[in-house]
Design goal:
With 277 residues, this protein is an alpha+beta fold. Among the domains are: 80 residues, 2-Layer Sandwich (wza like fold); 69 residues, Outer membrane lipoprotein wza domain like (Outer membrane lipoprotein wza fold like), CATH 3.10.560.10. It is built from five helices and twelve strands.
C-alpha cells in the first residue's frame, strides 16, 4: 500500500510540474484541438401561399410565412412557423371606375309594332274621279247624235263623234263635262250644254284568303265586309280583322291596312291575308 501511494503522489507531482512550466509563473495552457462538426443540412423553405379571394377583395396583409431559426447547437436546421406576418405588399382592391356618361341620351328600345294605317278621312269625302272601266252617260242637249253611253278605255280616254278622244282619267264628272264643252265650242257648237253621269262604276278586285277571288262589279256604299261576302266569304285560314287595300290617290297607288268595316271604292284591290295561327 505504501508503494502504491508513493507512485500516485509521484505522478501527481509530475503532472503539476509540467503544467506550471510555460504559463505565468511557469504554466503554459494546452492548445485547443479542433473538433469536427457535421455541417448543417440545408433547410427547404416552402413558398408562401398565394393570397385568397378575401385578401384580394378586402385588402388584408400578406399571409404568414415560414421563418428559419438560426443554426444553434440547440436548434440547428429546424423549420418553424412564425406567428408574425411576413413583410410584403398589402393587397388593395382596385377602385371601380365608372364609364363616362354619354352626352347623348339613348331612347329606349321598343319592339317594332305594325300599326293599322287607316286612310285619311278627306280621301273618302273627295269627289269620285274617273278611270278605266267606268261607263258614262253623256248627254249633249239638242244633239241626239252626241248623247250616248261611253266607256273609259284602258288609256283613260273616251271617244266621241266630232271631237274624237277626250281624256277622262283622274277627273270628276263635272270636269269632264267642261272638257267636252270646250272641245265642242271649237267650231262645232256655239253654246253646248253637256251633262255627264256615271252609268256603271268600274269593278273592284279581291284576292287572297277568300272563297272566290276575282273581279266584281262595284255596288254603292260597299265595305270590305260586303266585298268579302260577294267573293264567297273568308277562307279557312284568313285573317279576319284587317285587310290590305291598294288604291289610287292623287294619281299614285297607295297601300292601306284597314278594318273590315272600311268603305271601299271602285277600282280598289283588296288583299285578304293569311293568318299565322
Amino acid at each position: 500500500m505504501r508503494i502504491v501511494r508513493s507512485l500516485l503522489l509521484l505522478c501527481a507531482f509530475a503532472v503539476t510540474a509540467a503544467g506550471c512550466a510555460g504559463g505565468p509563473g511557469g504554466w503554459t495552457p494546452a492548445p485547443w484541438v479542433p473538433v469536427a462538426v457535421a455541417p448543417a443540412r440545408p433547410v427547404m423553405v416552402a413558398p408562401a401561399p398565394a393570397p385568397g379571394i378575401d385578401a384580394t377583395v378586402y385588402g388584408s396583409v400578406a399571409p404568414r410565412g415560414p421563418v428559419v431559426v438560426p443554426s444553434t447547437p440547440e436548434g440547428r436546421g429546424l423549420l418553424m412557423t412564425a406567428s408574425v406576418p411576413m413583410p410584403g405588399p398589402r393587397f388593395v382592391p382596385r377602385p371601380v371606375v365608372a364609364a363616362p356618361a354619354s352626352r347623348f341620351v339613348q331612347a329606349p328600345v321598343v319592339a317594332p309594332v305594325n300599326p293599322v294605317a287607316f286612310a285619311p278621312t278627306l280621301s273618302d269625302n273627295q269627289p269620285y274621279t274617273l278611270d278605266s272601266g267606268d261607263r258614262l252617260r253623256i248627254v249633249v242637249f239638242g244633239q241626239d247624235g252626241l248623247s250616248n253611253s261611253y266607256v273609259v278605255d284602258a288609256s283613260g280616254h273616251i271617244a266621241m263623234p266630232l271631237i274624237g278622244s277626250v281624256s277622262a282619267r283622274g277627273v270628276t264628272t263635272d270636269e269632264l263635262s267642261s272638257r267636252i264643252a270646250d272641245r265642242l265650242r271649237q267650231g262645232f257648237i256655239k253654246e253646248p250644254h253637256v251633262a255627264v253621269e256615271i252609268e256603271a262604276y268600274r269593278p273592284f278586285f279581291i284576292q287572297g284568303e277568300v272563297t272566290q277571288p276575282g273581279q266584281y262589279p262595284f255596288v254603292a256604299d260597299m265595305t270590305v265586309e260586303t266585298a268579302v261576302a260577294i267573293a264567297g266569304g273568308f277562307g279557312p285560314r284568313a285573317y279576319r280583322r284587317t285587310v290590305t287595300i291598294t288604291r289610287v290617290i292623287h294619281g299614285q297607288q297607295v297601300r292601306l291596312t284597314v278594318p273590315v268595316s272600311y268603305p271601299i271604292r271602285p277600282g280598289d284591290t283588296i288583299n285578304v291575308q293569311e293568318r299565322w295561327f
